[in-house]
Amino acid sequence: MKAAFSPLASDDGVPVSLKSNPMLSTWISIATEDAGYVCIRSGKVELGQHILTALAQIAAQALAVPIARIKMAPACTDSSPDESFTSGSLSIQHSGMALRVACTQVRQLFLQHAASVAGVDASVISVRDGVFLAVDRELGTYWSLARDVDLAVPVEPNSDLVAARFEAGSSEPAFGLADKVHGRYGFIHDMPLPDGLHGRMLRPPAIGAQLLHLDLAAVQGLECAVQVIRDGSLVGVLAEQEHVADLAVTRLASSAQWREQACLPTQDELPAWLRRQPCDTLVYRQAGQADLDGVAVAATYTGDYFKPFIKHASIGPSCAYACLRDDGTLKVWTHGQGIYNLRADLAVSFGMDPEQIVVEHVPGSGCYGHNGADDAAFDAAWFSLHAPGRHVRVQWSRADELCWAPQGPPMSVRLQVDVDAQGRILDWRTDAWGPGHSLRPGRAQTPTLLGSWYRESPSPWLSAINAPIAAGGGTERNIIPCYDIPCSALSSHRVIDMPVRTSSLRSLGAFANVYAIEAMVDDIARAHDIDPAQYRLSMLSDARAIAVINAVRDMSGWDTRQGGGQDIGWGMGFARYKNKGAYCAVVARVSVAQKVSVHDLFIAVDVGEVINPDGVMQQIEGGAIQACSWAIMEQARFSDRMLIDDTWDKYPIIRFTDVPDVQVRILARPDEPAAGAGEPSLGPVAGAIGNAVRDALGVRVSTLPLDFDNIVRAIEAAA
Q1: By CB neighbour count within 10 A (0-12 exposed, 13-18 middle, 19+ buried), where does 434 fall?
Q2: Torsion angle of the four alpha carbons 311, 317, 323, 329, in this order, in degrees rounded to the nearest 10
Q3: What fold does the segment set 16-167 form as a domain?
Q4: Which residues of 157-180 are buried (b: 16+ CB within 10 A; e: fewer)?
Q5: Span 427-467, pLDDT tens digits
Q6: What topology is assigned to 277-309+407-465+475-718 in CATH?
Q7: Per the confidence metrics, is the pTM higher than 0.90?
């Protein structure tokens, strides 16, 4: 597979999105017929993270107009900039900074034009609510001057534009929030279906199963016509009534005959099985404190940690629409995270020119990573080719979403740490095994879309890859400890033949790596009777890292905490996301009885420049709650040939009754680049919870989730 990952910015500091989308008119349009509004286009999409609100704030501030005058256009391949995927906590860095530069240049172009027409110096002109003023004299507005200012020109960012700083962010209400509360929001699932058909897919009973026989008579006699479409082992039905399509698939499933084969180990063998598989290995190193050279090793600590398969568990299953129009254009509506990359895979799948395909984003129920949205889009497009002129709606079932969407990869992490007699770390070694963390569309020579792998002439099954560590990594994300310690070998072993499709899930490898690192740091501190917070601080020289740890100590009352060892535990976790992004420190308070209950999470974060404080707060809180769910209860179970958690009863996620009280403190850094808030809290939250459980039990639970079975195993092993 070929990777297409980009660094945050080019060598000259210009946002990367401007490098690949250099025309001002790609980002912004101002029309006289739409007086009073500015249309802003971004390649980043709304996934429930309210990113469009923050981007609108950036544009409004750069243009000097109220946010109410900003219209954010839906991301669409026929009009929007190509910004690859909305992922990695990069939307503000990529799209936000690109919009800041582009909109600032647009304001300068209009200002210069107004000055030229009025015969005044540009330096005396100000902009207020889109009106250009010279003292109290109005020189025109964006909309009255729009015909005379050409935006079909390249962005020409100078150092002043790139380094531009604006006033501190404000907590503008999120776009669409009221509609969501009142059930009026325009989710893709609720789109009208003109002249429509409902499509349903027949899923195999096992991974990689081949269809041997299908009884088409099974769908006869239903209340409306059913069209059965088969292409090898890829089977689906079309019907004008949704419930009929569901019934038809059920009947076909009962009559179908398949060839299956075992491909997975037993659940308990998964960690060892991962370590036995063929792997691609990369090794990283980190220099440490020079004054530790030659110091004698007093002890070596070893720890084995495991994170299982985790599901996206989106509340609303994936959905998509498609229509093959009379002019041969294939229009697809999706809630996927990368419209251009999806278009590329659809073009290869169906032998079409990419320009024949238009992909438009419509918000779905939200996800953080590569769930089934792109696969549902393939299904809808495939159906539409068999029903030209008709709009086809594909709604995945709950079982489809839980068992056929890509899974968050399992990881087995082994740490070996040498320390001296005082507990100072002399060397740190890591081995992390697991499948890759990215199987997103558009990054390989052949499609990664599920349906394409089951056709008569199938696309080859591909293994997920990892991004280079410079771009954040996958399995190796946060494999480097965020402390000033020497690391002689940090090895990432990517399993290259994985039967279960794995791909990006919020925070990628950072969740497992930070959990393991913070567990080891805590255990060494306890073994040497050092306060875990003070031990972390002793290994840090980065002032921003020190600040978040001190802030969370203050918030939580860490230094005066009570409990520990009596079913109540306190724990701390810390990391800098991707080792170069946002800083996050967490303190957790838990109790342990029949299950782990997380009562309080105290979180201090430094995300650099803050655009919308409420938005940052919501992202950090949301990440913390999701990490809590993963840490204490979530794991995907499987048989020897198939994922088996196909209902909420089988795959529970955190409920409101289990949500802890979450307190967040944002450390203001207006002069630092924005670092993203969507993912930095997950690893530290898991680490803090794990350390709090260790504090309560006196036993380290190294296998996630921290449920009854894994706790009992840890206690038995310790005994």
Answers
A1: buried
A2: -30
A3: Aldehyde Oxidoreductase; domain 4 (3.30.365)
A4: beeebbeeeeeebebbebbbeeee
A5: 999 999 999 999 999 999 999 999 999 999 999 999 999 99
A6: Aldehyde Oxidoreductase; domain 4 (3.30.365)
A7: yes
